[in-house]
Amino acid sequence: MAKRSRQTFQKHQKEQARQQKQHAKVARRLQAKQRRSQDVTGMGELSQKMADRPPVPQHTPALGDHVSEPT
User: Fold this and answer.
1) Gap between the Cα atoms of 71 and 60, Å rounded
2) What is the pLDDT of residues 50-63, one digit of tens each?
3) How far apart are CA 45 and CA 68, in angstroms?
């Protein structure tokens, strides 16, 4: 059985490290995607609660306040 040369072995190690890094990156992306989807679900419930609340009255300018007229 022939032995691998040093350079070929180093290339193999480098390729293995690259593949592991790529798999870890894919796993992180999937976890982030799942976390975001859970956050969106949680925000949906919050916005539903906000929709059930009565609207907040808006500030109306007083008689002496300067208000620019739309042209």
Assistant:
1) 20
2) 667 777 767 666 67
3) 39
CA–CA distance, 50 with 35 (Å, rounded to integer): 22
Q: What is the pLDDT of residues 5-33, one digit of tens each?
A: 778 999 999 999 999 999 999 999 999 99
- Token code pair at residue 56: 């907040």
Residue 34, pLDDT > 90, answer yes
End-to-end CA distance of the chain: 89
Say how far apart CA 40 and CA 65 lie, in whole Å. 41
Distance CA 27, CA 33 (A): 10
Chain centroid offset of residue 30 CA = 11
